[in-house]
Predict the 3D structure of the following.
Amino acid sequence: MSERPIQDPAAAHFQLTDRVALITGGAGGIGLAIARRFAGAGARIAVADIRIDAARQAADELKGRGHRAIGLGGDVSRAKDADAVASATVAEFGRIDILVNNAGLMGRVAPLWELQDQDWDRVIGTDLSSVFFVSRAVIPHMRAQKRGCIVSVASIAGKEGTPRLIPYSVAKAGIIAFTKALGKEVITEGIRVNCVAPGVVDTPILHQLPAEATQMMLSKSPMGRFGTADEVAAVVHFLASDDASFITAQCFDVSGGRATY
Ligand SMILES: NC(=O)c1ccc[n+]([C@@H]2O[C@H](COP(=O)([O-])OP(=O)(O)OC[C@H]3O[C@@H](n4cnc5c(N)ncnc54)[C@H](O)[C@@H]3O)[C@@H](O)[C@H]2O)c1
């Protein structure tokens, strides 16, 4: 009788074999780093982004490395686009196991009294309503499967409150509350809901800010540097994997020691 090989449990860590992951804002920055990492762990990827060409390019890159991927265009601040990207993911892959709510923008850097209605609506729509819309579109599939996982990308701004970025701070604080509330709603249904709160990460979103603002942010980093998209993707990957099976309704800091609670 031949001996069965002894499996090294560590070798199986963070596997996402055949899991289907929908990643909003996955065409660049942190979202693309997550898409690459998930694909490398065996997941099938739907990249949804308002920049449809970039979404398709990201999917092509993953396919070029032998992974299964689809690029979808959509503005997830609109409920009908959120429904459409969820439906397209299920049409392509038959299910959705992981949702990463990553799409976001910082908006205009200005004090409260200079903000227009549209400044507020744009950031709240893109950064917070999108999380509600896409999660609502995906959760019925996860409930039917009795399995699923949502990881949203909040920000340290949602915990600290960043002056001159009020809509952004409010939206990100909203994601943290959303995570805690939804996590408790679906806690017995095989669905986990978590979020991450990155500090400043070197991605194209930073280019929306004036140089003095990025310098000020750098000065607040205990590590004296910005984080990388890969460093955020690593935590999202852990949370999306079965290795995080006892973790739900939580917010994880990826801030290089900046967060104090
Ligand atoms: N970079 C940082 O310092 C930092 C820190 C904390 C949190 N975050 C958060 O991380 C997430 C990713 O940011 P990033 O730094 O990679 O920025 P990024 O600008 O590189 O990526 C954001 C992506 O979202 C897409 N997007 C924007 N609006 C969209 C919409 N309405 N519908 C669909 N897609 C849309 C963009 O096209 C882009 O591909 C954001 O939620 C951001 O708030 C970033």
Remarks:
- The first strand starts at residue 20 and ends at 24.
- The chain has eight helices and seven strands.
- The CA atoms of residues 25 and 31 lie 6 Å apart.
- The pocket of nicotinamide-adenine-dinucleotide is lined by residues 24-25, 27-31, 49-51, 75-77, 102-105, 126, 153, 155, 198, 200-201, 203-206 (CB under 6 Å).
